[in-house]
Amino acid sequence: MVTTSATTAESTDAPRNELSVTQAQAVVLRMVPQLAVAQRYHDTLQLRQLHWRIGQANHTLQRYDAALRHYRQAARLSPSLSAEAAWSGWLLGRTLFSQGDTGKARQTYGSAFATFRQLRHLTGQGQVLEQMGELYGQTGHWPQAQTSYEQALSVWQLTNDQPHVAQALNRLGTAHLEQKHYSRALYYLRQSLNMARRHQDSTQISQTLNGMGRVYQTLNNQEVASSFFTQALQTLPATARPHTRAVVLLNLGVMSDSLGNHVAAAQYLQLALGPACQTGSKVLVSEVYGALVALHRRRGQSQAALEALVHYTELQDSVFAEQRSAQVAELQTRYEIEKKEKEIQLLLKGRQLQQANLRRQTLLRNLLTAGSLLLLLTVVVMYRAHRRQQVSNKLLQRKNAAIHRQKEELDRLNHTKDTLFSIISHDLRGPLSSLYSLLALMKLGRLPAERLASHSERLTRMLDGTLHLLDNLLNWSAAQLKGEGSARAERIRLDELADETVALFQGDAERKDIGLHNEMPEVCLARADVNMTRLILRNLLSNALKFTGSGGTVTLAARRQGQWWEITVQDTGVGIEPAHQNRLLGNGAHFTTLGTAREKGTGLGLRLCQEFVLRNGGELTFQSQPGAGSLFRFTLPALDEGSFAQAMPPAAAVASAAAE
């Protein structure tokens, strides 16, 4: 079928018109040197055009092998599946057809037409269809020729190419004439004649008139046929192709002979010999000599008839040989086609078997896939159920852990509560009872002044201890209730806190005849909770004084270690027994002993110090040797003087500078 949609832009890089013999000789002389130049510069476009033109020239000069060589070279220079490659195939098919290899010519035409159709190149399709129609006509396959011409006519009508439409109508009329469809032949020939006259195409007019003359000649209407042949000769331009001129003159000579005008017939036939020989068609030349043989016999010209018969016989032998070669080539092509068709059938059967196997394999694969999907779905369901069970187990474990933590916290709080109440009931009740008894004696007025002063001093010390105990107790309870992270870190001066704490305990030290020394640096900047730090220093100094006897010393010092301050409280007291050292900072029950002056304790001081040091990011450690004293040290984050002064408000900075 012909592609019915026109291409948007057909390539203009197409072969030019055919050449006369003179033009062909000139082309060969002029363009062969140009071909060498184009090859030197690798100009592909110019090379292809030159190969086309030189090939056409060799075709006109009947140098078919040279023409085929150039056309094949042009095809190699053309992109695959391009219009240029299709045009090269079209030219190659024409030369193969002229050589008599109709089988290969038909295959080449088919490939070129397929490419043109794929590219929607209508001009190329029309040209190939016309040549295929001519090939079918020359081999006697006129129904196929008619089909090709009808398709070519449809293409030319789509492109609105009127000259080619007229030519296709003329050839379609010839196909109907050969099939004895005379009325259809005249119908198409008249249409071709009218269109050729509208475009003043004298060559086409002459060919159409010649065709109409043949129709009437076949119908034995000699006078009308002669009239059409005469008009065809008169209309034929001087530039007409030799083949066209030879055919018109041959038909006119045969018609004149049949009408009895032997002189005119001889003239026309002699005139037909020249252009017939120029065409190189031995069939056409032999037809002219055959007509001359018949004419000379009727006129009684034996010698002329013999000479014409000799030429006719020689040409017939050549024509027979050519026809035989063409038939052999046709048979060979047909054999190859049948062989390929059988191979195709075998391949189709093999493909059908392969498809059947493929269908079975596909069915088996689908069944396996369905089974695998079902198995996978089961595994997924089981996996998800297992995951849900794992999630439930983890959730249960977290809840159990939370319950366990809450239980531990509750136990800790209960223990704190018990400790708190035991301390309140034991350590706070004694001093309060003593105070109550003293107040009762003072109320009765029976207490002498000396004893009142002694009891007041003792009661004052007891109340100081009770206040210190109450302070520790409240801080420890608050720390237990708030939990971790309650420290409020700020910039502090450890030296000022040390001075404050030493001044607080100076009286107690003098009363026990203990040397209390403050060896802190003049400026000791740290980052910690000021209240917690104050409580740590108080508890450590209180414990050191408590367990140091008369004549001993207690020293408070600090030193810088990188980003930390290490604060130490060292005494020369009784020390701590090794058996008690592990219990001192442990997590067990509260541990306490009496001081050197029988001072009581609660066991909360060191526990509170350890907790507050940890909350400020430091660490509390100690070293002790029984009879030699103890050394407690703790660390706090250090600050530089510049960062401390930069963070102070302006008023505080001025006051600090004035104090120094």
From TrEMBL:
Record-listed E.C. numbers: 2.7.13.3
Matching InterPro entries: HATPase_C_sf, HATPase_dom, His_kinase_dom, HisK_dim/P_dom, HisK_dim/P_sf, Sensor_HK_Regulatory, Sig_transdc_His_kin-like_C, TPR-like_helical_dom_sf
Catalytic activity: ATP + protein L-histidine = ADP + protein N-phospho-L-histidine
Pfam family, one: TPR_12
TPR repeat start-end pairs: 48-81, 166-199, 206-239
The keyword Cell membrane belongs to this UniProt entry's keyword annotation: no
SMART domains linked: HATPase_c (SM00387), HisKA (SM00388), TPR (SM00028)
Domain Histidine kinase: 423-640
Presence of the UniProt keyword Oxidoreductase in the record: no
GO molecular function: phosphorelay sensor kinase activity
Keywords: Kinase, Phosphoprotein, TPR repeat, Transferase, Two-component regulatory system
Enzymatic class: transferase
PANTHER family recorded: HISTIDINE KINASE 1 (PTHR43711:SF1), TWO-COMPONENT HISTIDINE KINASE (PTHR43711)
Designated name of the protein: histidine kinase
Organism field: Hymenobacter swuensis DY53
